[in-house]
Amino acid sequence: MPLDYYVWAIQRPGKTYLLDTGFDAAMGKQRNRQIVRPIEAGLAAIGLAPGDISDIIISHMHFDHAGNRDMFPHATYHVQDAEMEFCTGRCMCHPFMNHSFDPKDVQAMVGRVYAGKVAFHDGDEEIEPGLTVHHIGGHTRGLQVVRVKTQRGWVVLGSDAAHFYANFEQYRPFPVVESVADMMAGYDRMRDLASSIRHIVPGHDPLVTDYYPKARDGIADIVRLDLEPVAY
């Protein structure tokens, strides 16, 4: 089944967050992944530029979520303690565990720590009213999901807690996993956090852009999750 790769802009009063930073053209070539719309172009399509992003929430440190490491030099990055421990610890000695990480992304995050540009989270924490992060684990040891209060209720941006709708709907775990038990428990946790199952957004399912309204006329691959789905 094909994978789509998403970066989400979370627009709050006076501040714009990103969930994840994708990967750049060089990494796409290295990993044989096609970039349909670079992040800069996606932001521009909704009237934003990289300099408008004040904070970046990293769901986990895999190459397709923590790349473009030089694009947002002034942003504060939000990461779970458990994820930094995981991606810099002894598990990374094993190719089976480290193959989805880019060491340069990890090194860049360590550099941000020393520059005072990382906000660490330990479990479930509120970043601001209506915006919270929640440690799930499973896919990686420190994976976090984001819960956002929108006009249609609490939306959970699941990232790779569930790659596809079928993962959490049918309790079918994705095969790239650090802990199957945590991944399965995460499906229930997301249901508890979201206003309904229709408010959970998986991390890589192409159906997301079919289900949600387009953010702008004529742009098929940018959607609004704060509006009711047109399908699903």
UniProtKB/TrEMBL annotation:
InterPro entries: MBL_superfamily_lactonases, Metallo-B-lactamas, RibonucZ/Hydroxyglut_hydro. GO terms for molecular function: hydrolase activity; metal ion binding. CDD domains: AHL_lactonase_MBL-fold (cd07729). Keywords: Hydrolase, Metal-binding, Zinc. It comes from the Bacteria. Residues 4-204 form the Metallo-beta-lactamase domain. Its cofactor is Zn(2+). PANTHER family: METALLO-HYDROLASE RV2300C-RELATED, QUORUM-QUENCHING LACTONASE YTNP-RELATED-RELATED. Belongs to the metallo-beta-lactamase superfamily. This is N-acyl homoserine lactonase family protein.
